[in-house]
Design brief:
Layout (H helix, E strand, L loop, with lengths): L1 H20 L2 E5 L14 E3 L21 E2 L2 E2 H10 L3 E4 L23 E2 L7 E2 L5 H11 L2 E6 L6 H12 L5 H8 L10 E4 L12 H13 L11 E8 L3 H10 L7 E8 L14 H28 L6 E9 L18 H16 L4 E6 L10 E4 L2 E4 L1 H9 L6 E2 L2 E2 L4 E4 L2 E4 L1 E7 L5 E7 L6 E6 L8 E6 L19 E2 L3 E4 L2 E6 L3 E7 L1
Parallel strand pairs: 1-22, 2-5, 2-13, 5-8, 8-9, 9-10, 10-11, 11-12, 12-13
Antiparallel strand pairs: 1-17, 3-4, 6-7, 14-15, 16-20, 18-19, 20-21, 21-27, 22-26, 23-24, 23-27, 25-26
Helix pairs in contact: 4-5, 6-7, 7-8, 8-9, 9-10
Bound molecules: alpha-L-arabinofuranose (AHR).
The site of alpha-L-arabinofuranose (AHR) has 10 residues, from loops.
């Protein structure tokens, strides 16, 4: 026993020392056959949950807070700056309780709805289909609507599509026009239920596959939208059987995408504080986040069996860190702060998506405003951008860029007797020929030396932006909103066609080569 412990100690010491000394050699290939990184990987999610919509996005057009048709102007600006490609709405679990017709027409005549999943609050339905789809237009983002399968009907769902998308004369397009909108919005992305294995109806995979086929049959694209993409409610984390059953039982021509949900949670009964966490909790969160690599690889392998041409997209339509709610807030509102831990989590996850761009073609961070791993937090008239926001902005250079396949052996981040890959990376070339390399150091203690051969990349001059802080637990507060934001990074050198970088602990770095 003593001998084993000693051996373990020595191994850890060697790993730690070598992590500090040996450079990590990263190879980046300029491969013309590599896929394009779909911009929709950088999507967001806005659920009727806590203060995401009401008191977050939507303050109403009589509010003193500057707004456009009731939506805060500061949020609109922040999301435009982010180049938000798509926004998922109205849930989440809420989607399978939502009846869209309650959210159209004169606001004062709309019925209320009690949000049964999230805090039991009564909503007045003042934010509905028009408000959401008009917001997406303002943002220049594709809407991704989640339809109600759990407690709705096929008729209700197909009417929603007709209402949003039909250009000719029909009962639903007439209703839309009566409500003030002549032109259809042409919504492309439609989710057929949400978490059908849980809050969406507690269905078996086999039962849901049949439901899916039925709903999908009546989802017409009305021949004027350029086609709609039907997205199946996907697996919970590593439920590969769910993906297998859907892929086997749903004809491929009915299936545009298959979802996957994965949250980085330490323990569902004891999630831990969003700010006051130990290194052990940090390590465990990162372990859950890095699991995304295995999840995406294994779900993709199942999909490959039935769809070798990769026609069906993997849509990771809920991901992010999930901690205990902030003290003195409604437990059903899922409001949490956002630290450098979240920045690292976001950077590492987006690297995984970029590197699997052949199959992962859409993803939605949960959630956009005031809920879970939010990019924006609000407090009455105040608004702050979280460290996660800054990572999403730094990474938007990868949107629709050509993936550059990357390979390296990562050093290890060791905590007690456990290890994780310390370094994560992805790279792409945009349409102007600029190269972007994203590097994340998950390691909470050690910096890592990185060496990248840049000879074949056709660029010479590099600049870099980094996000890090002095403590893992640092965050932006309403009192100190800019404590964490990206800064220029200079601790690298370009020598003889090589980039040598000193990557600080718990940091996210994006290099640009031109
Ligand atoms: O994002 C919060 C909730 O997490 C969503 O409503 C649900 O789909 C998931 O379980």
């Amino acid at each position: 026993m003593k001998k084993t412990l000693l051996l373990l100690f020595v191994t850890i010491c060697i790993q730690t020392i070598s992590a500090q000394k040996e450079p990590v050699i990263i190879t980046i290939k300029n491969d013309p056959t590599a896929p394009t990184i779909n911009k929709n990987i950088y999507g967001h999610f806005a659920e009727h949950l806590g203060r995401c919509i009401y008191g977050g996005f939507f303050v109403g057009d009589t509010s003193k807070i500057p707004n456009t048709n009731g939506v805060r102007n500061d949020i609109i600006k922040a999301l435009k700056d982010l180049k938000i490609p798509n926004l998922r709405w109205p849930g989440g679990c809420f989607a399978d309780t939502y009846h869209w017709k309650d959210g159209i027409g004169p606001k004062e005549q709309r019925p209320t709805i009690v949000n049964q999943w999230w805090g039991g609050v009564t909503e007045d339905n003042s934010f509905g289909t028009h408000d959401f789809l008009n917001l997406c237009e303002v943002l220049g983002a594709e809407p991704y609507l989640s339809g109600n399968v759990g407690s709705g009907t096929v008729q209700e769902f197909s009417d929603w599509i007709q209402y949003a998308n039909f250009g000719g004369k029909s009962p639903m397009s007439d209703l839309r026009k009566k409500n003030g909108r002549t032109e259809p919005w042409k919504v492309k992305f439609w989710g057929i239920g949400n978490e059908a294995w849980g809050c969406g109806g507690n269905m078996t995979a086999e039962y849901y596959a049949n439901e899916y086929r039925k709903f999908a049959t009546f989802m017409s694209d009305w021949n004027n939208t350029g086609g709609i993409t039907r997205i199946a409610s996907g697996a919970n984390s590593n439920d590969y059987n769910w993906t297998e059953v859907l892929m086997k039982n749903i004809p491929l021509n009915m299936l545009g995408g298959v979802g996957v949900h994965h949250y980085s949670v330490i323990d569902w009964n004891k999630k831990g504080d969003a700010v006051n966490f130990s290194e052990e909790q940090y390590f465990k969160t990162m372990k859950e986040a890095l699991k995304m690599e295995e999840l995406v690889t294994k779900h993709a392998a199942v999909m490959d069996k039935y769809d070798p041409e990769k026609k069906v997209a993997m849509v990771v339509d809920e991901w992010g860190g999930w901690y205990d709610v902030e003290k003195d807030t409604n437990p059903g509102f899922l409001y949490q702060q956002n630290t450098i831990r979240d920045a690292v989590l976001a950077g590492a996850t987006l690297n995984i998506f970029n590197n699997h761009a052949d199959r992962v073609r859409m993803a939605n961070l949960a959630q956009c405003v005031n809920v879970l791993q939010a990019v924006i937090l609000t407090d009455k008239a105040k608004m702050i951008l979280t460290p996660t926001y800054h990572v999403m902005q730094m990474y938007n250079v990868h949107q629709d860029a050509k993936q550059l396949p990357i390979s390296f052996d990562s050093p290890l981040y060791t905590f007690k007797d456990q290890t994780l890959r310390a370094v994560s990376a992805s790279a792409s070339k945009d349409k102007n020929g600029a190269i972007h390399i994203s590097l994340v150091n998950v390691d909470a203690k050690n910096k890592h030396k990185i060496e990248i051969d840049t000879k074949d990349l056709g660029v010479k001059n590099f600049t870099a932006q980094i996000i890090t802080s002095s403590k893992l637990q640092d965050y932006n507060s309403f009192e100190s909103p800019n404590k964490i934001s990206p800064v220029t990074f200079k601790d690298f050198d370009t020598k003889k066609g090589k980039l040598e970088i000193n990557l600080p602990p718990f940091s996210v770095l994006v290099l640009e080569g031109k």
